[in-house]
Write a structure and sequence with these properties.
The chain is an alpha/beta fold and about 400 residues long. About 40% of the residues lie in helices and about 20% in strands. Bound molecules: guanosine-5'-diphosphate-alpha-D-mannose (GDD).
Length: about 400
C-alpha cells in the first residue's frame, strides 16, 4: 500500500493528531519515496491477523450486511452485534441464518450476539460493569453500547487491534479498503496507544437526477469545526487538523480501547477526541494512565480511495447526531464561554426543549473487565450468542451449544 507521509502533527499534551493522509495506491511496488510511505502486503497481513472487526447492526437490509461480511479480509475475526427487531418479522433470525451460511462457506471466524439478550445483562452485571444497562437490566439501545459488547468479545479473543465497520454500506469493496487502511495506520504507529480514523474521499448523493460526489457530510463538517475550535481556544493557535470528528469507520489498539471512556449512541466518535483532550491534553488535571501519557496517543486520519455510499436515515437522525456531537464539545472540561456560546448559536432551534445541551451519558473504561470471564458467562447460557471458529463445522458448534442449553437442533 502507498500512503501519503503525514506532513504535520498537532500535539496537544500527550495527544498527537496527524494531518490527513491520502491512500495513493492500494497496493504498491516497494519503491521508497520521500513523499509516500510504502507498506508491504505482508506487514498489512500481520496486522489483519491481530485485528477484530466489529459490525454494529440494527434493522439493515440483509444484502448490505452480507456484502460487508464478505468484504472483510479473511485474516480478521468478525464480531456482529445486532440490535435488530426480533418480534413479528424476526430480522435477527435472518441475520443469524446468513452469518451461519457465510461461515459454512468461508470458515472465517465470526462471533455474533443480540444486544438485548438478557444473558448479556447478567454477564455485564457479573463482571461489574453495569453502566450500559437499563432499568430491566438489559443493554440499552445504541450503537456505542453495541460497540462496547463487541470490544469485550474482541478482547476475549486476545486481539491487539479493534476496528469498526457499519453494516449499511452499499460498496463491499470500500469496506475491504477500510480494513486495510486501519492496518496501514497501525503499521505506521509508534505508540501502542493509537487510533485510526477514516475520512471518506467522497460521499455520493443524488442531486437533480445526477450523482454528486460530496466531500463533507452535514454533521461531520460542523463537528470538526467545533472540535478544532476547542483545540484552538486552548492552545491559542488556530487549527483545522481534526477532519474525522464523526468517523464511524475507525479502529483502535486494544490498549487504547481499554483506557478510553465512551459516550452513548452516535456521540461515541466525537467524544473520543473530547475525552482524549480532557484526560491527556495540556490541561489534564491528573495522570490516570502514566504509560499512555509517556508513550503518547497517536491519531491517524486517513482519506480512503473509495467513496462511501450508505443508507440514508433521514433528518431526525441527522439532527440527533449533530446534537449528540456538539453536546460532547459543550460539556468538555476545556470548553470556555466563547465556545459554549458558539455551540448554542449553531444548535439554534434544534435545542428547542432544552435550555442548554444535556450531558452525554458516559461509560467508563473497559480495561478492568475480565473479558474471558465475560465470554464464558455467555457461552452455553445465551440464546443468541454464536461463536463460529475457523475449521469447525457449524453444525458441531450449534449441536454443542444446543446440548448445553438442553435443546434439540432445528435446521434452518
Ligand atoms: N448494535 C447496534 N445497536 N447497532 C446499531 C444501533 C444499535 O442500537 N443503532 C444503529 N446501529 C448500526 C446501524 O445498523 C449501522 O450499521 C451503524 O450502527 C451506523 O448506524 P447508522 O444509523 O447507519 O448511522 P449513520 O450512517 O447515519 O452514521 C454513521 O456514520 C457517522 C459518520 O458519518 C455512524 O457510524 C455514526 O456513528 C458516524 O458518526
Amino acid at each position: 500500500m502507498l500512503i501519503d507521509i503525514s506532513r504535520r502533527t498537532e500535539i496537544f499534551g500527550s495527544v498527537k493528531i496527524h494531518e490527513l493522509q491520502r491512500i495513493l495506491k492500494l497496493d504498491s511496488g516497494g519503491f521508497e519515496n520521500p513523499r509516500a510511505k510504502d507498506i508491504p502486503f505482508n506487514a498489512i497481513k500481520d496486522v489483519l491477523r491481530r485485528l477484530a472487526i466489529i459490525i454494529p447492526v440494527k434493522d439493515e437490509k440483509i444484502h448490505l450486511l452480507d456484502g460487508v461480511l464478505r468484504a472483510i479480509p479473511f485474516d480478521c475475526s468478525v464480531i456482529v452485534v445486532s440490535n435488530s427487531r426480533r418480534e413479528n418479522h424476526d430480522i435477527y433470525k435472518m441475520e443469524q441464518d446468513m452469518i451461519t451460511n457465510f461461515h459454512e462457506l468461508t470458515q472465517q471466524e465470526i462471533l455474533s450476539i443480540h444486544q438485548k439478550d438478557p444473558e448479556l445483562g447478567v454477564a455485564f452485571y457479573d463482571v461489574g460493569y453495569d453502566f450500559l444497562l437499563d432499568r430491566d437490566d438489559l443493554v440499552r439501545d445504541g450503537k456505542s453500547e453495541g460497540m462496547i459488547i463487541g470490544m469485550l468479545l474482541a478482547k476475549s479473543l486476545g486481539k491487539d487491534f479493534i476496528g469498526f465497520a457499519d453494516a449499511d454500506n452499499y460498496i463491499p469493496g470500500s469496506v475491504r479498503e477500510y480494513v486495510m487502511d486501519y492496518a496501514a495506520g497501525f503499521f505506521m504507529s509508534e505508540s501502542p496507544y493509537s487510533m485510526v480514523r477514516l475520512h471518506w474521499r467522497y460521499k455520493p448523493k443524488v442531486v437533480e437526477d445526477r450523482l454528486y460526489f460530496k466531500k463533507w457530510g452535514r454533521v461531520s463538517e460542523t463537528t470538526n469545526k467545533f472540535l478544532n475550535l476547542l483545540l484552538s481556544t486552548n492552545t491559542g493557535f488556530e487549527t483545522g487538523v481534526v477532519v474525522t470528528g464523526n468517523a464511524g469507520e475507525h479502529a483502535m489498539t486494544t490498549k487504547l480501547a481499554d483506557i478510553m471512556s465512551y459516550s452513548t449512541g452516535f456521540s461515541i466518535e466525537p467524544y473520543h477526541f473530547v475525552y482524549l483532550f480532557d484526560a491527556f491534553g495540556l490541561k489534564a488535571e491528573k495522570i490516570a494512565y502514566p504509560d499512555a501519557t509517556s508513550a503518547g496517543i497517536e491519531i491517524f486520519q486517513i482519506e480512503t480511495l473509495n467513496p462511501h455510499l450508505h443508507e440514508e436515515k433521514g433528518e431526525e437522525h441527522i439532527k440527533n447526531m449533530l446534537l449528540g456531537s456538539l453536546c460532547t464539545v459543550y460539556n468538555s472540561k476545556l470548553c470556555n464561554d466563547y465556545v459554549r456560546s458558539k455551540v448554542l448559536e449553531e444548535l439554534g432551534n434544534i435545542l428547542d426543549l432544552w435550555e442548554k445541551p444535556k450531558k452525554n451519558i458516559l461509560m467508563p473504561p473497559i480495561g478492568g473487565i475480565d473479558a474471558s470471564k465475560f465470554r464464558k458467562l455467555l457461552e452455553g447460557k445465551s440464546e443468541t450468542y454464536m461463536c463460529l471458529k475457523q475449521g469447525t463445522t457449524n453444525e458441531g458448534e450449534r449441536e454443542e451449544e444446543g446440548r448445553i442449553r438442553g435443546e434439540s437442533i432445528q435446521s434452518v
